[in-house]
Structures are given as structure tokens and as C-alpha cells.
Write a structure and sequence with these properties.
Number of helices: 7
Radius of gyration: 21 Å
Strand order of the largest sheet: 1-2
Structural class: mainly alpha
Order of helices and strands: HHHHEEHHH
Shape: elongated
Largest sheet: 2 strands, antiparallel
């Protein structure tokens, strides 16, 4: 693909399609874990109100044992997020120093090898792409965590903030790639919600 911008679009679509089955399974595991936590919550909440200290720990451990549950299973809820990390690391290492992006323009991006600096206010350049990426990430998170507990929502919003900080001064080609991933993730979340709750 001669255009660096279209190459990024193609790679983003290809990675999302190839990883779709893996993401779907991760979402299923995450949903199963949340359902298990929900079913145990009336017991665990009661135990936490009734008992304190070591006694609480012992009763909780017994409750988990009887229900074939381990507290570390709660990490399964983070599986969809953890699956993105290897893709992010690979994209970050490749696109951060990609010579093909240096001086390459793509529509509104003048140089994909540099931060976009689309807006200038009082001589200060503002990178719009990382902000757009974060907004899309937050909207996707709102849809994905609808009906979930506050801790699940906070986890996604904090992650969106971390990505904003990490990528704010990154080359716009890298941020463009990750923004595309967020758009595809948003579309996937909307589609999955429609399938589950038509």
C-alpha cells in the first residue's frame, strides 16, 4: 500500500478482524466472572458486614471454597484489557520510530512522524488526535460498562487517561492507529450490546 495512512488503516482493520474471536472469548470470560461475582455478592456483602478481621477472612475463604471460587479469578474481568497490551506494545515500538511516517501526510495529519499539533493557542500547540482517541475510548467504555459496578467503570476510565498521557506527544501516525482501534472497539461494543439486548 503506497500511502502510509491507508497502510495504518489496513493494519488496524486486519489486526481487529484477526483478533476478533480472541476478543469475543475474552469478553465471554469477563462476563462469566462478573456474573459469578454478582451471584456471590449477597453472601460476601453479608459476611463483610457481619464479621471483622481474621474471622471475616476465614468465613470469606470458606464461602469461596464452597462455591469453587478464588479471589484472583476477579482478574478475569480485566482479560479484554490485558489482551490489548501486547498489540499496544508492538504498535508503540514499531510506529514510534517508523521512518515511513516521517514527513508522510494523510488528510488532516500533516506529518505522521510528529505529534499532530492541529491547534495553536497563544503559541502553545495542542495535539487533537490523543484527545479524540480518549473521547472515543471513554464513549466505548460507557457502552461496555453499562450496568456494571463503579470499580469496573473506573478501571476503564483510568486506562483511557493513562493512554492519553502516554500518547499525547507521540507521532500522530501511532495515535491515528490507536484511535482507529478505539473506533473499531466502540463499533464492536455497540454491536455486542445490540445482539445481547435487541
Amino acid at each position: 500500500i503506497p500511502s502510509a495512512g491507508y497502510a495504518i488503516v489496513f493494519v488496524s482493520i486486519a489486526v481487529q478482524l484477526l483478533a476478533l474471536a480472541m476478543y469475543r472469548r475474552a469478553d465471554e470470560i469477563s462476563d462469566e466472572e462478573r456474573a459469578k461475582q454478582q451471584s456471590l455478592s449477597k453472601w460476601t456483602d453479608h459476611i463483610k458486614k457481619t464479621f471483622k478481621g481474621d474471622e471475616q477472612l476465614m468465613v470469606l475463604s470458606e464461602c469461596y471454597r464452597q462455591n469453587n471460587y478464588q479471589p484472583w479469578y476477579s482478574l478475569k474481568g480485566m482479560l479484554p484489557l490485558m489482551l490489548q497490551i501486547p498489540f499496544f506494545i508492538a504498535a508503540y515500538h514499531f510506529l514510534s520510530d517508523c521512518q515511513a511516517l516521517e514527513g508522510a501526510s494523510f488528510y488532516f495529519l500533516k506529518d505522521m512522524g510528529q505529534p499532530d499539533a492541529m491547534i495553536s493557542v497563544f503559541g502553545i500547540s495542542i495535539n487533537v488526535m490523543p484527545i479524540l482517541m480518549t473521547v472515543i475510548n471513554i464513549v466505548s467504555g460507557i457502552i461496555y460498562t453499562r450496568g456494571l459496578k463503579l470499580k469496573d467503570k473506573l478501571q476503564l476510565f483510568i486506562t483511557a487517561g493513562v493512554f492519553l498521557v502516554l500518547l499525547y506527544n507521540s507521532p500522530s501516525g501511532l495515535v491515528f492507529y490507536w484511535t482507529l482501534n478505539n473506533i473499531f472497539s466502540l463499533l464492536k461494543n455497540i454491536f455486542m450490546k445490540l445482539v445481547k439486548h435487541p
